[in-house]
Amino acid sequence: MDQKRTCLNCGKPIQGRIDKKFCDDSCRNTYNNQLNAAETNLIRNINHLLKKNRNILSMLIPEGENLAKTNREKLVREGFNFKYFTHTYTNQKGNVYCYCYDFGYLPLEGDWFLIVRGKE
Fold this sequence. Notes:
This is DUF2116 family Zn-ribbon domain-containing protein. By secondary structure, the chain is α+β, with helices and mostly antiparallel strands. The protein has helices at 25-60, 72-78; strands at residues 67-71, 87-90, 96-100, 103-107, 112-117.
């Protein structure tokens, strides 16, 4: 029973070991890259948004300072996306800061935000 095996990527006949699934390294890489493409793109896009948020927060704090105040309109105008942040921090008063890596923001009254540089 000589069963012809074919490459999972290109369909060409495979020769060699019985458990071989691809005709060469190029086909194996192409197959696996296509398999992981959607997940990789999702992660890449989210990381891009997180980095953009961090850069926006960073530019709002003057050089040599550790905090600043801004309003929602300015953040949105710069392209800030409130859906994406890396983690939260709750201080002793119960205030919840949302962080994008090492820069965070605390919602204040009237669509104002306190922007902070992390101490870590």
